[in-house]
Amino acid sequence: MNANHSIEQLTQILAEKNPNLSVHKARTWIELLWSDFESTYAKAGYDYRGAEYTEKIIQQWITSYGDKIHEFAGRNPKYAHLLEENDDTLQ
Fold first, then answer.
1. Using one digit for the tens of pLDDT, what is the confidence trace for 39-49?
2. I need a surface site. Which of 15, 25, 53, 78 has the fewest CB within 10 A?
3. DSSP characters for 30-68?
4. Which residues, 6 or more positions from 13, have their beta carbon under 8 angstroms from its beta carbon?
């Protein structure tokens, strides 16, 4: 399974878990989480464990925080500007 397929699946799961997110915003969140996790993991000196591992971690985050993730953007300027656009028509 490749990263793009995993990102598509995770996007659908997040969009279903959180009705406050459009599919476009859910994808933005998944891409941000994916990128941040892999870069943080690498900076910490861990060996790359593959897309399946990253998918598993993000799946756990969606289960734990997916229904509230939109609240995080308002408190974190690092992400807020990436999620501001009105994209509800892109669903």
1. 999 999 999 99
2. 78
3. HHHHHHHHHHHHHHTTPPP--HHHHHHHHHHHHHHHTTT
4. 59, 62, 66
Q: Which ranges of the chain have pLDDT less than 70?
A: 1, 73-74, 82-91
48 touches 42 (CB < 8 A): yes
Output the CA–CA distances (angstroms, integers) from residue 76 to 42, 53, 60, 68, 73, in the order listed. 22, 26, 21, 14, 5
Residue 19 phi, psi (nearest 5): -70, -10
- The dihedral over CA atoms of 10, 14, 17, 23, expressed in degrees to the nearest 10, equals -120
| Range 21-32 burial, b when 16+ CB lie within 10 A, else e | bbbbbbbbbbeb
Helices (H) and strands (E) in the chain, counts: 5, 0
